[in-house]
Amino acid sequence: SDKTWCGRVLSEHDKVLKDYGNLTCLTRFPPEPNGYLHIGHAKSMFLNFNYAKQHNGKTILRFDDTNPEKENVEFVESIKADVHWMGHEIFKTTFTSSYFPRLYAIAVEFIKAGLAYVDDQTDADMKLYRGTKPDGTQCEPRDPPCRFNSIETNLREFQRMKDGFYREGERTLRLKIDMRHANPTMRDPVAYRIKFCEHHRTGTEWCIYPSYDFSHCLIDSFEDITHSMCTLEFQIRQIVYNYVTERAKVYLPMQWEFNRLNLTQTVMSKRKLLQLVTDKHVRGWDDPRMPTIRGLRRRGFTPAALNALCAAAGVTRSDSQTIRASLLERCVREDLDASAPRAFAVVSPVKVVIENFAELLATHPDSATVEGDAIICTHPLKVTADTYTERLTSELFIEESDFMATPTKGFLRLFPGGSVGLRFGPTIQLAKEGAVFTEGGMTVLRVTGVWGATPSKFIHWVSAADAVPAEVRLYGPLFEDEKPDLSDGWEKRLNPDSLVVKRGYVSRFVAETARIEGHYQFERLGFFVVDKDTVMTKGKVTSLVVNRTVGLRDSFK
Ligand code: ATP
Ligand code: MG
Ligand code: MG
């Protein structure tokens, strides 16, 4: 005998899950293809794909494409690629638009059963009749006059809507539920609206498009979704979801709500992200400052780090969940710490000339490491037991911040009259006077090297003879405010220093091993990733661009 639920036969649903390989769970991730996926979607993906995976289930990627004016194929393709990059396995890819004929047929059935009617009210009147005056105060709800039209009239009018007889906004199809229902979403919600806009999949076939309230529940049911997860703002609409599936006499999926994930010092809604792109506040959807999956990827975040963040954030039902950017940074640091090779790079170079270099070579305590005009230093990769070699030559670049012409109190690195250790190499001393020059706009320090000293600090360096120039892009938060969304004019409070570009140098090892999206830890500077703007010729770097993913310590407030 057939199992039923709310009077509906479940055997068909069970059969489908059986055909799919005896699944006990089927979830869906339903993005609208109107923008690129962001870190909030990473949470939704994490929940939908992981829940299914852990419960003998699978996950459908469903494009919820009912607003043709904002959607396009570029977004569809980018979303597919991002889901894949995040490491999720897509069971099937579907589109709400594929169900347009089936939804239309159900709408006609609803009209025939007296459950829907064509209305001519404007948005403003609809709101007023639902019980909200233009000034926002409440009033008595009223039945719209069209509510009492005959089934024949409604059938004819709906056909006219479909045939393009009316202009946008002139008619809607509404569900005839209850204009005085305590839950305002039940006050005759809109099921179809008119839109004269070419759809990226159905072209000009349709000029009426189903609403979320009418389509989402039915398609969850058509697709035999067992657990339909959505963000909390839809909780109030659950009653409509249940109503529509019940009246359509189709299987009712279980619904679960979770809260939206937000990040500090950025915006998350696709509308605002789009505005950042179109107003050229950022260089595109994949700008490394963007909270999009593409942006985070280009910044050097890994799928493991983003999924770890979602796991750490967890699922709660409190209204909002604002994750501090520092938690995201910690997740990526942990992941890259285990995998990124260590190397030297200098972001803001000053030049060091070791004047007695020949003497240093001759007196090296381990003469086996001297090769020609260089000292061969063994640099541990740390990720594995492997090492590589770095040549220390007479001319080096060191970090500008490791030198002070007039040292502040407690500054222990290089200053006139002071000394500092070069990692893997000698200690260098800077004379009190006459050793600091400027050449071609760059500071040059003429130093003396000694072996056997015990400096209090060691600094990193790159050989001027071997190092490869690199454009180094350093990032800060997009916004200074913790929650820029909360106030008007959010787009005017951008952090002017969210991108700082430096002309630096990386060690030969980096240039030789670089590939787009390859990660490194530049010692004392942070984790970096090779940007796609890098130019490679025959597998060799000819112009290197690196992005700082994250510093070694928390940089956010
Ligand atoms: P946006 O305001 O960014 O356009 P949306 O909810 O309209 O968000 P969709 O593309 O429809 O975006 O979202 C696809 C899925 O991802 C939905 O299930 C949605 O609830 C979920 N989602 C979107 N943003 C977030 C977020 N910030 N946190 C968690 N889940 C989210
Ligand atoms: Mg949506
Ligand atoms: Mg949206």
Structure description:
It is a single chain. The chain folds into four domains: 4-94 and 215-262, 3-Layer(aba) Sandwich (Rossmann fold), CATH 3.40.50; 100-213, Glutamyl-tRNA Synthetase, Domain 3 (Glutamyl-tRNA Synthetase, domain 3), CATH 3.90.800; 264-344 and 466-557, Ribosomal Protein L25, Chain P, CATH 2.40.240.10; 350-460, Ribosomal Protein L25, Chain P. Helix content is 26%, strand content 26%. Helix 2 (39-54) packs across helix 11, helix 7 crosses helix 8 and helix 11 (303-313) crosses helix 12. The strands form eight sheets. Strands 14, 15, 27, 28, 29, 30, 31 and 32 form an eight-stranded mixed β-sheet that branches. The chain is elongated and about 105 Å long. The protein has 14 helices and 32 strands. By secondary structure, it is α/β, with parallel strands linked by helices. Bound molecules: adenosine-5'-triphosphate (ATP) and magnesium ion (MG) (2 copies). One magnesium ion binds next to loops. One of its GO terms (molecular function) is glutamine-tRNA ligase activity. Residues 26-337 form the Glutamyl/glutaminyl-tRNA synthetase class Ib catalytic domain. It catalyses: tRNA(Gln) + L-glutamine + ATP = L-glutaminyl-tRNA(Gln) + AMP + diphosphate. Residues 340-430 form the Glutamyl/glutaminyl-tRNA synthetase class Ib anti-codon binding domain. Belongs to the class-I aminoacyl-tRNA synthetase family.
